[in-house]
Design brief:
There is one protein chain. By secondary structure, this protein is of the alpha+beta class. It has one domain. Helices cover about 20% and strands about 45% of the residues. The longest helix is centred in the first third of the chain and has 11 residues. The radius of gyration is 16 Å and the shape is elongated.
């Protein structure tokens, strides 16, 4: 399934091409929202996963999830890299935003004033 999401390189290239980047002249922040329950359900082949714990540091946020006796750990790094481990098996280890994902939504903001940047 092809996603409508752009990766960071495509986004910056589109801004440079139409002159928007020069008009902004300000830093841009990319926010990534992930549907953890939906993503884990797909990777694990089903089940109703619940968030059990969340740990955050400067580099990443790690979520611990449970479905009955099954355990999952999802680590989302600030760089867009993600690692998903379910019951000791690594089911995903890669860039969540690189090729687009139906479970991740990218939103861009002006870092100085917080205004959302809308892509055409």
């Amino acid at each position: 399934m092809q996603s409508d999401l752009m990766d960071d390189r495509q986004f910056l290239a589109s801004l440079m091409q139409d002159g928007t980047l020069e008009m902004l002249g300000e830093p841009i922040v990319c926010q990534v929202e992930v549907d953890l329950k939906g993503w884990i359900k797909e990777l694990a082949g089903g089940g109703e996963w619940e968030l059990f714990d969340e740990q955050e540091d400067d580099l990443a946020t790690t979520f611990t999830m449970r479905n009955g006796q099954r355990n999952a750990e999802v680590t989302l790094y600030q760089s867009g890299h993600a690692i998903v481990d379910i019951d000791g098996a690594a089911l995903f280890n890669g860039n969540l935003t690189e090729h687009g994902s139906r479970w991740a939504q990218l939103t861009y903001f002006n870092a100085l004033n917080g205004e959302r940047i809308t892509l055409n």
